[in-house]
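Input.
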Amino acid sequence: MRKKKEKEKNLTGALEELFLVKEESSTDEAYGYYPFNRPIAEYIRNGVVCIDKPSGPTSHEVVVWVRKILEVSKTGHAGTLDPKVTGVLPILIENATKLVKFLQTSDKEYVALMRLHSDASEKSIKKAFELFKGKIYQRPPLKSAVKKRIRIREIHEIEILEIEGRDVLFKVRCEAGTYIRKLCSDLGEIIGTGAHMQELRRTKTGVFKEDDAFTLHELLDAFRIFQETRDETFVREIIQPMEIAVRNLKKIIIKDTAVDAICHGADLSARGICFIQKDIEKGDIVAIFTLKNEIVALGRSLASATEILKARSGIMVETDRVIMERGIYPKAWKS
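Output.
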């Protein structure tokens, strides 16, 4: 129970520490659900499961297997992994697939094994790696599905973990859309030996890490136990509420009376806001939450937190993507 409460709190953080209070309000327990308290059917269809993808199948095949295991109609993944690549593959279920586009653009972290084509000194290898910090130019490889034009991608961190002969093990945290296979090839050119990627594992995508990942077999076992015994424990451990996926986004918490209007595509006005995260700046992408920690929509803030706090009226957030389904909260607006 304590672990569950800690997870619930982590969806939005501690209000007193992170948020400014615009207007106090209460939530009606008759509508909506705290994410971890959703009935199991709603919990699954508004959930995300982080799969530890094995070597061999495509990302699409893994997505289909999850769909069949859980007996749902729709699943989507957050960032393709090549068949031989292993690691973190978040898969969103039914209503949660509305977050796919957002998660696909989140930063990624990998551990890669690069093999040099001839011998090189440790000094020259380390010197080359230093050149690949920050913004780099990349042309996608021939086998990729995107246009083969030069693109700028940012390497946030790159660290050599081990050098053994011609094998270089390294960790890299990078912008989405960075090709690690091409990164190895480019590193080889700078080192002067040529190189190729031997192995690759994704260790993080967005907020999801290796520690959050489960195998397909574990998911299958958990769901079978649920079907046979109605014990939801293991399913709820493996599948997480979709709100977990956006826990790093800046947040605005709204009144119950504003929820259904947002679900119908309305922009968020100042009068619908209860709490504002302190560090919101004009132009930031923000997540709009209910007082029960349910995600309603993603939007773009039209003002800073202090400006929103002072505003008595007017549109404060332009709604970009509605996540919550209509009709969960009562209509409190005139059509």
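Residues 85 and 200 are 5 Å apart (CA to CA).
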